[in-house]
Amino acid sequence: MKKEFNLKVLLILSLGHLVVDIYQGALPATLPFIKDKLDLSYALTGLILMAANLTSSVLQPVFGYFSDRKAIPILLPMGLLAAGIGFSLIMLPAHFPLVLLLVVISGLGVASYHPEGYKTAHFFTGERSATGMSIFSVGGNLGFSIGPILALSIIEYLGFPSLPLIIVPSLLCTAIILYYRSTVAVPFVAHAEAMKKTETRTTTASYVALSMVILIVIMRSWTQMGLVAYIPFYYINFLKGNPLFAGKLVSVFLVCGAVGTLIGAPFADRWGHRFFVRLSMLLSTVTLPAFFLPVVQNSILIFFVLGLQGMLLVSSFSVTIVMAQKLLPHKLGIASGLLVGFAIGTGGIGVTLLGLVADHFGVPAAFHSIMIIPFMGFIISLLLRYNE
Q1: CATH value at residue 148
Q2: Mean pLDDT of 214-227
Q3: N or C: which end of the chain has fewer CB within 10 A?
Q4: pLDDT class for 188, splitting at 50, 70, 90?
Q5: What's the rounded Cα separation, in Å, for the pair 309 and 304?
């Protein structure tokens, strides 16, 4: 069965991706309010975030494994509901274990949606695989950016007890997915054909190439998460800038990253996936030092530089997922889970190492060390062997 490009299905899946990642992105922004309400230590507050990252990211390959054994379209609406219900209720419990349980439920919802969503999107991208996948991927990029704004707006204008209102996008999108369930489901024939490929043994070269793609994504994610975490610290604590201005810088970086996902994919389809990944990591390495120029830090140019950095760095987001799926064509769910869950989650954990650098040598040293990371990704990409 030949794959055909289906914009309608990709947009529906992308909307679900946007909504489910709203809750993933909103959690860090609400942690200060949870900490104050329960009088938690920083260690316990950090445990909440660790539990969220473990369940929402690292466990994605597990859901991908079961998704590969059999098409499980119910994971899409169930994931949306679980993500929304778990997060929207975290302000209710007065005890830490119950809050942790709700965070885990939300995280499992996020983890279950992604592999099934990426696998389903694969069957509707047609010949423009990176372009089609970018439409699905950009939903998550936008959702992660919208999450903090939506959660904090509800808390600021209506109060923390009104946080359950954030479940509305989850309920609406779940209804849409269920209404179009027969359209959105993986085509039975296509899935059956994909499963037949399990009889073909994956070569050692494919596993080596996949490992290198994962390493590149870890470097990219480490760079992205490091910038998101340390732009505020650097701008507020070191440059003594306005906190609201620092927040705007992060937002510009994230939104431009989402734009880069859409813009970059058609070029990747035209120029070749491996070449585009190399180009993305190289240009990210070259442009990042511009942030530290005084003429940039003291002018509106800082928005342009960070926006350009976000576009270049994240432009390969959907491309690397397509590469992983082509390397493991009979394990689409696992491939997606490894890239979107494990690799990105591991890259986020790398931010902890930046924290150690900041503690011992200061925030500027941590920020400067980020410049090395995309270069490491570029070097790995030069060693990658991948057939288009």
Answers
A1: 1.20.1250.20
A2: 91
A3: C
A4: very low
A5: 8
